[in-house]
Amino acid sequence: MKNLVILGAGTAGTMMANHLNHHLKQPDWQITIIDEREAHHYQPGYLFLPFDIYTPEDIVKTIEEFIPKHVKLIKHKIDRIVPTENKIQLEGGEELAYDILIIATGAKIAPEETEGMKGAEWQKSVFDFYTFEGSLALRNKLRDWEGGKMVIHITEMPIKCPVAPLEFAFLADSFFKHKHMRDKVEITYVTPLSGAFTKPKSTEALEHLLDEKNIKIESDFAIERVDNEKKEIVDYGGKTIPFDLLVTVPTNKGDELIQRSGMGDDLNYVPAHKATLQSRDYKNIFVLGDASNIPASKAGSVAHFEAEILTDNILLFIKGEPLKEEFDGHANCFIETGNGKALLIDFNYTHEPVEGSFPFPGIGPLRLLKESRMNHMGKLAFRWIYWNVLLKGTHIPFVSATMSDSGKHYE
Amino acid sequence: METTIGGKSITVNEEGYLTDFSQWDEKVGEALAAEAKITLTPRHWEVIKYLQKEYKNQVALSIRHIGKSGVVDIKELYQLFPTAPLKTATKISGIPKPASCI
Fold this sequence. Notes:
The complex is a heterodimer of chains A (411) and B (102).
Chain A: E1 2-7, H1 11-23, E2 29-34, E3 39-41, E4 60-62, E5 72-74, E6 78-82, E7 87-90, E8 95-97, E9 100-103, E10 107-109, E11 126-127, H2 132-144, E12 148-154, H3 164-178, E13 185-190, H4 200-212, E14 215-218, E15 223-227, E16 232-235, E17 240-242, E18 245-249, E19 252-254, H5 256-260, E20 285-287, H6 300-318, E21 331-338, E22 341-347, E23 356-360, E24 364-368, H7 373-390
Parallel strand pairs in A: 1-2, 1-9, 2-5, 9-20, 11-18, 12-13, 12-18, 13-14
Antiparallel strand pairs in A: 3-4, 6-7, 7-8, 10-19, 15-16, 16-17, 21-22, 23-24
Helix pairs in contact in A: 1-6
Chain B: E1 2-5, E2 8-11, H1 26-35, H2 42-56, H3 63-67, H4 74-80, H5 85-92
């Protein structure tokens, strides 16, 4: 019997377990998936927790309920991968051999990378919303916060869900308007990039939102440290930005097990081929989702599209046939803009988000790069699709793994 | 759009960044640096070569990452390319400024 092992039972790992379960049957293959956690969180929900739009119960289920019957789930911490010996070492010493390994260990925040971030003000006036605990702590703060300078900040790229900080700013604007205290809050968006938007079409289409919502921008800000006493963020160039409430996206890194295995780059992301998803260093290792270093966005939709292509490539690999260089970096993401509206963007490695309709030309029903209530309904409905369609490895009708030009307005 | 840099016809975007790295050469780099009021020293060139290498490998650039590269530390980077060093150094190097999905 051959062993296919998947590390990580988050979005990507779970989808792969389901995809491969259709194709790799016992007694030829045993699929094993390893994750030390009990819970599976719908991470896009973390954006909504601070504003009491979702409750914790809305976004938590178990890992187990999404793992198919014949896939073995091991609930244990992984110590490291020993790629030269085709085996995994679990914490405690147990070893597991593999014929094929899929790394789906994700990415998480590392606030300790920035001096002072996890200092005296952490979870008092300095918060993240990229963790369950962080979102809830921020929720509790916002429930009673009486106003002041809210600074929404990105430490460095890459981050998962690159649009989330902007969504947070938009939702915060609506939140405070709803509470009749918008005039008591100054919202500033601070980014290491040269603007809130970096792509021409997006800038053209969306820049007005920042003015309309009175969101100030500070760009080219490379944070050096958080000054907990003065309540300021300080960049390497000496610029300071004061805050009363800092909502920061810390450095995002891959799992430490990647570092323990000696396999990642300086942010613990695993080098992989951007179109085949095969590891650059080991032929029988593949990487899916946020854990890789490929230049695609770190987003659930990307993992979904990757999974369809990776499944094909795993089957080709098993047959000893050449892999398909098919993955094009396709991502499809909703962006909440507040007041019951959202945008949808659909893009890939080579094509920036443009206006148009999705998935059907003309008909839509979703509009690309334009605010609509339908898009907002789509974002909310997506939670159901995540639990009931996406995680199970089911293809979403009319949405191809590689980006389609259809319905898009390219000049 | 087409413009002339370092005596060559170069295609740039609306912010003056090269859209085709193969059009870059050292004279173009020097001309872009002059526009930014920077005189290039051998140290500058070491950083430029490093940035271009990272670009070829499609590595996301950040100040912290460059500071950990072993090529230059952050303090020196700001001395070499004052004010928004990432934005400035990438333009001179003929590579796109760091961008996100939108």
